[in-house]
Amino acid sequence: MKTLQFRQAIAEAMTEEMRRDETIYLMGEEVAEYNGAYKASKGMLDEFGPERVIDTPISELGFSGIGVGSAMNGNRPIIEFMTFNFALVGIDQIINNAAKIRQMSGGQFNCPIVFRGPTASAGQLAATHSQAFESWYANCPGLKVVVPSNPNDAKGLLKSAIRDDDPVIFMESEQMYGDKGEVPEGEYTIPLGVADIRREGTDVTIVSFGKIIKEADKAADELAKENISCEIIDLRTVKPMDSEAIFKSVKKTNRLVILEEAWPFGNVATEITYQVQSNIFDYLDAPIIKINTADTPAPYSPVLLEEWIPNHEDVIKAVKKVLYK
């Protein structure tokens, strides 16, 4: 095993796949000369040249469309958004072309493309740069949505995403790029649609994904001091969702808390809640609790931001509530 930063794991995944398959290329703002806005493509221009690591103008709609057309014609583009907030400019290409082309063409075209970049809050970036888009894209048939929480998963999942024959939304975080973790030395992939039992427990199931799952880890450590055993499931892939992993855990613990860094209406936690109550309702010994951000645009003020975003204390309160403590 070796230790890599999250950004290095992303770079390794792309580099290894581009060495393996010459149809793969990276395109986006500042990915080449600047080594990526968050240095997630460092050194790739030197190795692959400007024909495969391509700097673009600030035109998400334009380079998203180029990527989709290129994927339909035999290439495997990786399209980097500096942030998924900017993907709103190119969302027509993602939703109306990438996601639908296989169905609309009667299977004559597929679209093996990865759209990747950071999602959700990254501190004091205010309302227009702090939105979580997982549930937006998961709502669209034809898209797979991946949200890794650590370097090992980031590398293995990204390699699988690049090899997938359908469009994949791959979501990261500015606040995770410097996170370090162990990564295997050799070749490996992690299949899409398979959750990870991050921590085994017996009293309550906590489901989360992405960077906010670290708050679940903190809560579980604190609750363990009170002899409360938490099982933490890292979804890793929001769509397709590994519902069976959640069901299996809840059948054991009989209680469920869902932690998600997103607005409370119509999010991933809402779908999990529906699936659990409709499939294994009789195993629940308490109502499901979902923890989300406040139902407002993200504030800029650090004091307000701290109140807006969930933390481990919110998780502790929720766990104790479902345990009637």
Description of the structure:
By secondary structure, the protein is an alpha/beta fold. Helix content is 36%, strand content 18%. Strand 2, helix 2 (44-48) and strand 3 form a beta-alpha-beta unit. The chain is globular. The N and C termini lie far apart (41 Å). 51% of the residues are buried.
How is the secondary structure organized here?
Blueprint: E1 2-5, H1 6-20, E2 24-28, H2 44-48, E3 53-55, H3 60-72, E4 76-80, H4 91-98, H5 101-104, E5 114-118, H6 134-138, E6 144-146, H7 151-163, E7 168-172, E8 180-183, E9 196-199, E10 204-208, H8 213-224, E11 230-234, E12 237-239, H9 243-253, E13 256-259, H10 268-279, E14 289-291, H11 302-308, H12 312-322
Parallel strand pairs: 2-3, 2-4, 4-5, 5-7, 6-7, 10-11, 10-13, 13-14
Antiparallel strand pairs: 1-8, 6-12, 9-11
Helix pairs in contact: 1-7, 3-4, 8-12, 9-10
